[in-house]
Fold:
Amino acid sequence: MTSNAYLVLAAILFTIGGAGVLLRRNAIVAFLSVELMLNASNLAFITAAHQWGTLTGQVVAFFVMVVAAAEVVVGLAIIVTVFRTRRSASVDESSLLRW
Amino acid sequence: MNVTQLFLPGAHAAAATSSTTGGTGNEVIFWICAVIAVAGALGLVLSRRAVHSALWIAMTMISLAVLYVAQQGIFVGIVQVVVYTGAIMMLFLFVLMIVGVDASDSLVETIKGQRWIAIVGSLGLGGLLVFGVADAFVQPPVGLTAANAAHGSNPRGIAIELFSNWVLVFEVTSALLITSAVGAMVLAHRERIFPKLSQRLQSQARVQSGRANQLPVPGVYARHNAVDTPAIRPDGTLAPSSVPAALQARGISRGLDTGDIDEVASGMAGAPSVVARGTGIESTSELTDATDGNDGEVQS
Amino acid sequence: MTAMLAHAANVSQTVPATGGFTLMWLLPALPALGAAVLLLSGRYSEKWGHWFAVFMAFASFGVGTYLFFDMLGKPSDGRSFTQHIYTWISSGTFHVDFAFRLDQLSMTFVLLVTGVGSLIHLYSVGYMAHDERRKRFFAYINLFVAAMLLLVLADNYLLLYVGWEGVGLASYLLVGFWQERPAAGVAAKKAFVVNRVGDFGLSLAIMLMFVTFGTVSFSGIDAGASHASNNAVTGIGLLLLLAACGKSAQVPLQSWILDAMEGPTPVSALIHAATMVTAGVYLIVRSNALFTLSGTARDFVIAVGIITLLFGAAIGLAKDDIKKALAGSTMSQIGYMILGAGLGPSGYAFAIFMLLMHGFYKATMFLGAGSVMHGMNDELDMRRFGGLYKFMKITSLGFIAGYLAIIGIPPFDGFFSKDKIIEVAFGQSWFVGIAAMFGAMLTAFYMTRMVAMTFFGEARWKDDAHPHESPAVMTVPIAILGVLSLVAGALLSINSAFVNWLTPVVGFSEPHLPVSSTAISITNVVLVVLTAVWAWFQYARRPVPVIAPDHVTPFTVAARNNLYGDTFNEATFMRPGQYLTRSLVWFDNRVIDGAVNGSAAIVGGSSGRLRRWQSGYVRSYALSIVVGTALVVAALLLVRI
Structure:
């Protein structure tokens, strides 16, 4: 079986993650969807590493995980801060950057 | 490429007799894990309660870890479980606790047209992406057997790669991690509005309030030790001050299940009243009046 | 058409100035210095400025006289001198020098301009005595004299153009001298603008000359004329005619001269009678090499001359304003000169001769008119004059001397100059000759009318009029010019002295007359005398109505309206021009400003619509990103397929 199936799976997961960001109002769920998209891209990298027989893809996937971790830390801290002042975790609450 | 390959990528692959990485076993693993992963992703997007979404994505991540291992990325697979699912998802769950475990979205969409344009757009993007990658690789995969064996094992290979070719990225990433940790601390920090009371001042305040002892620990009665279960005083009433103030403010503290008390009491039939033994107190109402009213003194 | 050239023009004998002729630069320099001193010295020269200007004019005349006698001492084919001042333009093949040429033709003009000019300077001392801006007036007429001398002394057409423009400027400044009168300002502008049309012709002619001959100097063009194509020569000739029409107030550019009478009378005398308006004739005669070669151009010149001499006479018949009648007369007399210049080598010399004579008698009459106005409280309406002979003897006699000269009574100036032109006109064709003779009759009529209404008949003055003779400073120039009007013609015609004097420059040929010249002369004189007598009885013996009568022939109505010249100009040029500018303004406002403002409005309007995209919701922004990404991916995939 070729590795194209893995790529298609990655694309599907990416799409579902994107739809989650667009459709969910809860900030944490939206963030989880972003994490899903990152995971999908990780899968693509691992597949490529497997396809070409080098470890570079895995190293890159590793770095993606690290950066995702850092991003989650800061992102959740922001959500907590916003939640403290507004008492609401909805992303639609902060909508002042408009015309 | 023809239509079958577009929608059933595996159909093309099934024609291949073998792959360098284990053929049908791998295929079975792939199909099972793929279904689980997609199901988890859909569960993430479609659950009403946020906690359920976190659990669904944890399921997706674990199935992805299996896929990584299936593709001879052992180190990355384990790291996925340990770091991603273990640490990052736990972070999410902690924040969910702060925000409120019961938090759920209403189904009404507030932005006009968002829902259907989002679905159409995502489907479109998805379709295009799938169309784009469905025939990306035309040769059979090389596999990582050789690469893994080159330095002994997969972790060793990754380590050598990481600290030679990618060392600069590594250093920068470490700086990023430190920065994000510091940033999170700065963001989550709350300034003291009141000065911190020293122990001396604390004990003075306690004495002045009329209650010289500690607050009761919640859920002392032997049946429960949950944070939201109040303690029972010797006279059988509940002590609301044993529940943390945060939960009290949310009204999450539980009432007592009197069936438990009756059970124990019936097992102790004939025993003198719990209330009256050795305390010298005539009735519980005296206790209740004296002890309640100190609920506001909580240190956060 | 052309008679055989009996004496060819002397084209190649111009030599650099030697001896006394090196002073020729003083001729324009002295009045220019006068103008500069008066204009720049401010209040210091209020007391003596005008005498300084008069002195400069007379000094220039003195130098001119000296040079004239010096020239007389030279042989007749060696009287042409040039003086190179500096190289003005030297660019590629285009070379123009700032150089003067003094030959017989320019000498004639020098004496005319400085002589008559000096007398008029003297006259102006008295005429402008009560004007507080007198010094500026003298600065301007000095400036005029300097520019006119530059015009006639120039050695090439470009320097002539400088003088041409200079006299136009001086005319504008002097016609509009009384700035407080709106009519004067309008008249000055009209004179300048109509002149500009002619100047356009002159500049095109100069360009065409450079293209055809490679040079614009007189000697170059005289030498190269016979080698140029006929079309080029005709073209240049027609353009020069256009220039002459502008400056000399010939049809179709005649409308300005009647309005130019708004200026002070000495200005009218000097500029619009004696000198500036004759510059057109000078231009044509100076370009005789070209006109001799092109019959077509000469035919146009003759046509313009004939039309104008009749046109001017018609206007002069109906005007009651003495200066406007004289202006119509000037227009007509210059028509004669143009006619003479158009008749080719047989007429050039007579055109210049008439020009000289006209300078004397017309200046006399203008100065006399000024003197009459001075004595009658600046009254201009001839219907308010009458019977002034007893009160202003010298003025009247001077005016009458000029009158006798202009109508061509022998042995006065007009008989020797204008009659000669009428004779040569018969050599061209019967029609031209008869038209010229008819014009002479009209001249006699309106001039007699003018003299009769002004000096004779019964007094029709206003109540506050006390006619008195003018001071000596005004009557002496009138007297001098009056005497010249009577005798100069006869003196200069002894042995055809003047014609011989000019022949080396302009050439001469005998005309072929259908009848003898004597017959023509006698017929002319008889007709003129009869017409004069008839007019005398009309205006001196019968009472003249004080208010101009309303029941008159359409011809009189037309003549009072300047033969609808102004109406024609307005309808043909002014109104379309105004309409054009209005439509251009509309176009600028609607289309150009509309495009600019419209594009700004479009940008503003569309930005007002577009900004609603910024809803503030993160999710809608994310949706925009997703849709955009889908489009980008689609584009990439399309390329692959």
Chain A touches chain C at residues 18, 21-23, 25, 91-92, 94-99 (CB under 8 Å). The mean pLDDT of chain A is 91.
